[in-house]
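Protocol step 6 of 9: fold each sequence in the batch and record its structure tokens directly after the sequence line. For illustration, a two-sequence batch is reproduced in full.

Sequence one:
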Amino acid sequence: MPRLAQVGRETPEQDIQQVFDAVFGEGVDPITQPGTATGTPGNWWTVFALVPACFRHAVAGFQFYRG
């Protein structure tokens, strides 16, 4: 359990919601229904979303390495 706050589905950031859909399932709130298809709690995503610019930077890095 992270000591930092977490961001859930209520975030106004559309791009973060799209990543949440891809990671947790469409429309799933990762705070009330944590967990990913790989079995992790997924709290890395919800904590990083506290700082949208940091979240976007990390996701862009993942896209670069997967491309």
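Sequence two, same batch, same settings:
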Amino acid sequence: MVLRTLSFQGDAFGSETMKNLILKFLKQYYWIYDYGDRQGLLGAYHSEACFSLFIPFNPQDPASSLATYFRYSRNMKTCKGPNLRAHLLKHTKPDIVDFLSVLPRTQHDLNSFLVDVCVQTEKMLCFSVNGLFKEAPTRTPTHPGLNYIHICLPRDIPGDRTQATVIKVPDIFMK
């Protein structure tokens, strides 16, 4: 992961201040996610955060490198039964981080990220991130694409005093 000043093409941040805030968050989050102990991400999630993973690919495709993720996918087309769908929806920050910790090691290519600020108010920031990643330390090719949606709340929301309060829903790996 490159920790230099990132210059993304086609991004919609709204302002230079917002761009710097989001880029700082992305660098810190994905540094921990890719290279650190993912338990360090606990502070990034709100106590009532929700998370799900969606993989739009055919699990019978032996060539797909996303097969590892498919069993965790909450794809409504392939995930049969309400109990399984409920089980795959993570409801608290410890559950989310524990889940993230069992996923394969990755390397996100921050230079490939395209960021779009969808909503910005005094009480919420919602932005999407599109980009590339690959599993590490294997030499598998980079996956064709991913889309993360982050919903961020200010630190001073009552009831939660985390360092950076973030709800991240959902992570979508696109084929």
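Proceed to step 7 once all outputs are recorded. Observation for sequence two: The longest helix spans residues 16-35.
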